[in-house]
Structures are given as structure tokens and as C-alpha cells.
């Protein structure tokens, strides 16, 4: 393939594989008019430019070849998953969990339990597609089968997107550039349109709107979380989304959950928040490191969820008024 790759005119290569343009751009290399075949272009590249890029010609060719292969693999690996099965292991005292839990695409499962009970551990087991090799001894099956090593140990072909409590960006890009870059890597048809959609969606989730021009490092915690949720729902290739709590500060949890569960992703959320816990299809109760119970959200609970949401709206309103420096002297009326 390397021969064929070398003979491909650069402009064709950039058209077919936008990731190559991003790669060359990141190295500060100019593709010129793109008429030359890749091999020819590389041979004519001045030595000092190669030196600045820190790569020999052969290495550069090998990198481009590998990049194209991996991006294609990623697209293949992103085909939908129908189910994820968790085979129980043991709790902190070594007692068997006796659980076989199948979560189907499109389902939202919440994980509840006291602090330190093992909710994050459960998410971590799913994230690494545990095969009896973590402290819990749990095993994870994908579409009823144990995942192959290539799925477990290829961090660049992620099956699972994990949104953790602290999200620190290491790049200093504007929100638009950051999401556009991701959209380009995902090879979506309309990169700019998709980026706009993700940003608009994130802005719909957060009380404090942000501009696409602001740097990702300047976003507040709530804004960052909203952006990551919109990105995971609309743009991420990963069929499984794991969320370690959606804090109620600044993110519309109801919309976030509706957005995430709208597609055919498998969503697991660890939470202490009753509004989130009751909005899942099912919830796992964790006790002493083990899954003690699997509860399907009942009709009565859904009714109560609506009442709690009204109460939550009242609380949010008071919070908003306090933030604006207002007094809360008038008698608050509980909704009936
Ligand atoms: N089945 C288990 N066997 C052994 N250790 C476990 C098991 N489950 C959890 N642990 C360990 O217990 C500790 C607390 O678990 P974890 O951090 O997952 O709790 P948590 O419920 O997420 O807490 P929080 O609500 O405070 O975030 C961790 O060190 C974890 O590795």
C-alpha cells in the first residue's frame, strides 16, 4: 500500500483523508498546490522543514500510512453495539455478586449507593472491559461475547466515552476549533454544520451560554460538562457513554439525559442526584462494592419524579434569585 500511497496526488489524499491535512498542518508543513504525488512532495520537502517536524522522510510516510489505517479502523469499530453484559464478580468482603445484567442499546442505567460504595469502580470495570482482572472480578461481554484484545487495548479505538468529574483540557483552542477538529476526525459530512450543532446543543444544556470563539480552557465546569455531553451524544463514535455524576450546577440534567438516550447508545451514570437516578430506565444499587439490587424505575416513581422536578424548578428559581442579589421574603408555596 505504501507504493500506492506514495503515488497518490496529495490533493486527492487530503480530500479522502482530512486527518492527513490536520497532521501536516500540526507539523507546520505546507502541502503546496497538492498536485504532486505524496512521495514526490516528500522528496522535495526541504531538509530543514523535515528537521523542524522532527521526522525523517520514511518515518513521515509510515506515520501517514498508519494514521489513515487507524482512522479507517476507528470508523469500522464505531458500528453500533446492541448490548453490553455485566457478569458479577464479588463485593469488598469477597461475597459473590450473583448478577448477570444485560444493558441494551438506547438504555440509560443509573448507579446509586453511598459514598465509597464502589460506583466509580463499576464504571471503571466497564471502561476497561474487565475480564476478571480487576479487584471486583467482574467480566464484561459485548453483544454477548468477550471483547477481543484489540478492543481492550486500543485506546485510540475507544468503545467507551467516559465523562469524569474533572475535565481538564490540555489544548488551548477555541470551542469551535476544538469541536471542528473532533468532527473532522470523525469524518462527518458537514464538519462546520455539525460543530455549530454541537455548540448550540451544549448552549441549550447550560444556563450560562458561551461563544464558539471562547477558549475551551476558559469554560466553567458546567459549560465544559455541557460541551462534553453534547459532543458525546452527537459526535462521539463510542457506543457506550459512562458519566461520573452530572452536577446540578449549570447543566439541564433532564435535557442532557434526553439527548444522550435519544440515539442507540448505552448510557451508565453514577449519581447521588435523585432526579437523575429516577430518570434512568433502571438503577443499580451498590453496597459494599457489590451490585446489591437492580431496580426498574416504577410508574409510581415516575410520577414522583414529575413532582420532584416541580420542586426542583422552585429551588432553581430561588437559587437564581439569590444569585442576582434578590431577597426571598415572600412565602414560598409548595406545588401540590
Ligand atoms: N468489589 C470491590 N472489591 C474491592 N474493592 C472495591 C470493590 N468495589 C469498590 N472497591 C474499592 O473501594 C473504593 C471506593 O470505591 P469507589 O471510589 O468506586 O466509590 P464511589 O461509590 O464511587 O464513591 P463516591 O460516591 O465518593 O464517588 C475504591 O478504592 C475501589 O477500588
Automatic annotation (TrEMBL):
Gene3D superfamilies: P-loop containing nucleotide triphosphate hydrolases (3.40.50.300). GO terms for molecular function: ATP binding; ATP hydrolysis activity. The keyword Cell membrane applies. Keywords: ATP-binding, Cell membrane, Membrane, Nucleotide-binding, Transport. Signal peptide: none annotated. SUPFAM superfamilies: P-loop containing nucleoside triphosphate hydrolases. It comes from the Bacteria. Residues 81-314 form the ABC transporter domain. Belongs to the ABC transporter superfamily. PANTHER family: OSMOPROTECTANT IMPORT ATP-BINDING PROTEIN OSMV (PTHR43117:SF4). This is ABC transporter ATP-binding protein. It comes from Pseudothauera rhizosphaerae.
